[in-house]
Write a structure and sequence with these properties.
This protein has 120 residues and is mostly beta strands. The protein is built from no helices and eleven strands. The strands form two sheets. Strands 2, 4, 5, 6, 9, 10 and 11 form a seven-stranded mixed beta sheet that branches. A hairpin with a 5-residue loop joins strand 9 and strand 10.
């Protein structure tokens, strides 16, 4: 059973960088052919895919967020990390990490999510 757990600050000030970590257990982030994703859900809106890091280490980003987003990984800890720079209150959302087989939004495992609020 694969488990994903998001961690990071729940409150971030405008213009700062939001940083979240996803810790994976029960499976390796280097296992072929899985992609490890960050997605978010703003209040009252649907899920938004932000980006992925593949088993190979290749990264893929949503065009609308690409200029502000960076995803990296630490294979020794079986973790991957999201950094979102220059945040505004519009970045307030529940942030999830999730696994998919391939570059798809068909996730087979997802973390419980973590609320991040952007406010001064």
């Amino acid at each position: 059973q694969v488990q994903l757990q998001e961690s990071g600050p729940g409150l971030v000030k405008p213009s700062q960088t939001l940083s979240l970590t996803c810790t994976v257990s029960g499976g390796s982030i280097t296992s072929r052919y899985y992609y490890w994703n960050w997605i978010r859900q703003p209040p009252g809106k649907g899920l938004e895919w932000m980006g992925s890091i593949a088993y190979s280490g290749s990264t893929y980003y949503s065009p609308s967020l690409k200029s502000r987003t960076s995803i990296s990984r630490d294979t020794s800890k079986n973790q991957f990390t999201l950094q979102l720079s220059s945040v505004t209150p519009e970045d307030t959302a529940v942030y999830y990490c999730a696994r998919a087989k391939g570059l798809t939004v068909d996730y087979d495992y997802r973390g419980q999510g973590t609320q991040v609020t952007v406010s001064s």
